[in-house]
Amino acid sequence: MFASGETDCTSAKTPTALLIPNSLFGMGNPLLDISAVVDKDFLDKYTLKPNDQILAEDKHKALFEEIVKKFKVEYHAGGATQNSIKLAQWMIQEPHNVGTFFGCIGKDKFGEILKQKAEDAHIDAHYYEQDEEPTGTCAACITGDNRSLVANLAAANCYKKDKHLDLEENWKLVEKAKVYYIAGFFLTVSLESILKVAKHASENNKLFCLNLSAPFICQFFKDNLMQVMPYVDVLFGNETEAAAFAKEQDFDTTDIKEIAKKAQALPKVNTKRPRIVVLTQGKDETTMALHDKVQTFPVLKIDPKDIVDTNGAGDAFVGGFLSGLVQEKPLNQCVKAAHYAANVIIRRAGCTFPEKPDFK
Fold this sequence. Notes:
By secondary structure, the chain is of the alpha/beta class. The protein has 13 helices and 14 strands.
């Protein structure tokens, strides 16, 4: 994989056939997505911004029932990290179970749906199942090509390092992996679990990837985020998250390239690998910082009328990127795979995809 001093185009390509199960590890909040096209009145009633991600508060509790009663809803297995692992597996196709996923669910109907969906997606999901809280849900409130996400973590919030991650049979799966991915959302759940995985990756010169995930993570969970940052080999984010991160870190710039450079240069434990920072900007170019070099990559063009739902675009981008990383492809190929995956996903409702990719 990317040794120190390698640029984006020099990493040797490994055939997919050499991949083994459990090479890619993800840990996060498994949620059942409830997607619906809503109206502005609905957003206003629950004081939601058209394009945002928030955790449900008491005032949002009725939202989950109302959206089901009032609008035509679709259910999809979700949660940011699980989506990305699923997408990476879809891009890879064979062998099955390249992706492993850990998270917490309830012993209920929604939990059973999530287990079935993970199996259908050929990912090796090992859930910590408990009966104190129900399986988490996420309402995706869609207006035009915007989406406002409201997550009720419930069971997802109950993940326990000592009850699951530390178990010998589970930790063996962690050790099998060579690429690790955790969305920033999990920083609100189990910092100690993230740090255990991050330190393992760093000590064994494996790739640990993290996503900023949402502005509120950068703002209100800044301390947790910065405890993990020294272990991060690949940092993902979009333009709004990058702006929030830059503001909280006193970067004194709003320029996306400068933000990428400054984030890339933050202290790092494993000095054998320079950090890679990848920032997306919707339909605008993707920015990547490595060493002191910043590159930009145009996204695939799409007619606005072909956009069905941008809800899973960020997760899909990461999934595509991870599929390249775990196959040890050059970074420009990882970005290409990421753009392809995002382009497929936004043409469909929810984070769903056709049977097979036609990515070359």
